[in-house]
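protien #1 (seq + structre)
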Amino acid sequence: MNAADPAALDDATTIEAADPGGMLRQVASAAAQIREARRTTVEAGIESLAGDGRPRAIVITGMGGSAISGDVLAAVCGPGCPVPVVTVRGYRLPGWVGAADLVIAVSCSGGTEETLAVATEAARRGARLLFVGGADSPLAAMAAQTRALFVPVRSVGQPRATLWGLTVPLLLAARTLGLADVPDETLESTATLLEDISHRCRPASEAFVNPAKRIALELSGDVPMVWGNSPLAGTAAYRFCCQLNENAKYPGVYGELPEVDHNQVVAFDGYFGGSGGRPPGGHSGGRSSGGQSGSSDGGSADSDDLDDFFRDRVDDPDHGLQLVVLRDLDEHPQVRKRREVSVELARDRGVAVTEIAAEGEHPLERIATLIALGDYVTVYLAIALGVDPTPVTAIQELKARIA
């Protein structure tokens, strides 16, 4: 893999030339998506879902960037939700799903074959239906045929960048059913936070004060191990790794505390850890970035941080793991202990650590801010590596081969 070029992130003109598909502009549309999707969902008649009462379960079917909307819904509803919220990725609907359940089919294009297959099966079983996706699509046609409620979504470009346009209809459906407390004020405050992150991570902002550019350069060459400290942050960690894959064409390993302390933590002692591919202490042992956490909140940095940032990475020892901890404010006391000790173990073994804290109070605000920074990081990493962040050539070739 080519080494990251910090100069590629120096100015907005260079960045724009390296991003011909406009992925950064798509990422920056998150706040507008929330506002537009709220209007569209209300206009589609989402309140009609309440007529049949609370379902036994909510099942979201989707793939890729569309499926993550179901995970976000589950995270916002939280562990106290009175009904299960399950995301199905694949061709088959679980055998227990029936007429008492609400099946939400989500497809940005409206033509995802797995999603259409599950939606067809849900209709055959008589399940309650809500379809969310592209207008004038096979999914829209199926909605008309089955008399399902349909919410049209305008794609901003790539499905993975249309996350909030796809997610808001699900949140409002759950609100209508009394399963999620997401008032309009929270939707607006979340949009405002996303606008603030977009300002901090704007292309014209220099790398040493732009948290996304800085984290991208720090990750380059390392294998990111991205952990969340709660189910909500775990969903953001999964999203982070998916965005590493699709935007930066880069690997990533995701996990959630406390489970990772029963398996992934052992990798610190392996080939990619400090005791394997490089000597302990050979790579910067600790960083804290993003949000309002640690020594770098996008507005300042101490001299040690700056010395580390401007070092010549060509002379670095062999690359290895880097631990990225996504920190939710809602953290179990024992998980907090595990997180703190896990970070100590990583640093003791020469594994670099980056910590990113959620912002806001409401679960939607917290997960949105974690996801937003990760989206920017992965696009900037692609640009720094000389990779076009928009195309997903391997996915298109795979689809062509199986067609």
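ok now protien #2
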Amino acid sequence: MNFQQLRSVREAVRCGFNLTDVADALHTSQPGVSRQIRELEDELGIEIFVRAGKRLTGLTPPGAALLPVVERLLLESENLKRVGDDFSSSMEGQLSIAATHSQARYALPLVVRDFRARYPDVALHLHQGSPRQVAAMLMSGEADIGVATEALTNHESLLTLPCYRWSHSVILPENHPLLSAPQPLTLQALTEHPIITYDQGYTGRSHIDDAFQRAGLMPRIVLTAMDADVIKTYVELGMGVGIIAAIAFDPERDRLLRMLDARHLFQLNTTRLGLRRGAWLRGYAYDFIEMFAPTLTRADVEQAMRSYEPQPWGDHI
């Protein structure tokens, strides 16, 4: 038994049992992947995959029982390498962060700047994606740390920790009638204007929808986007009223827009940090976490990590 055999099994599940994709992911040949899987099956005396001819179509019951063990063995092999690296070169290495656009654009820049100043020999890789993509990158091991408001708590294989709470704001073009309307702003007043806001599943959109639904109102949402910069562009063109994360409004950069506080209209949101359960983090990764969320000390994160057993990636796609 060897780790290449185990990787072939894991990637076969991740790639939807497409051996061509598995070979590409492992930088080998399709016959090589098939051979690795067959050799492991022969050694264990079971069939791991259901087959239709030469194609893999699913996991057998023994294969489904085996997969969590394969996941744990591969995770621990990665942890062994990270432990060695942590003690041999604690100031060098790489760190991969997956974040949504809003977090990467508005919440992370100062943290990244300060981290680079403290660890100039650590290569930072910043991946942007939807909340679901952030979760997938964490579960696959592509990212060490994930930052998002939505989706991370939906996966049992991820440990999620609260970082900070934030509210939404309403943005308007200069001279918009809502600026001179009676304050505080109401949901009813918003429904009288076209609205531009986030796509479903992004940056607290569910709390926006819930507020209108509870009030029995139907907002006229004319345009949605994944990030605040796009929303602000179309608000500047006069196409509607924008609802964005308050952190995304900068009076200096957004001089053509005005902002109205909306924290009384929509439920507060919590940005969370996600980690793959059971993964070993380098010392500088804990420092990055604490720089981003000072309440999350290394001791707190390690205690939270010890509270969980790792779960198989493939069960939570």
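The chain has three domains: 3-83, 91-163+270-316, 168-267.
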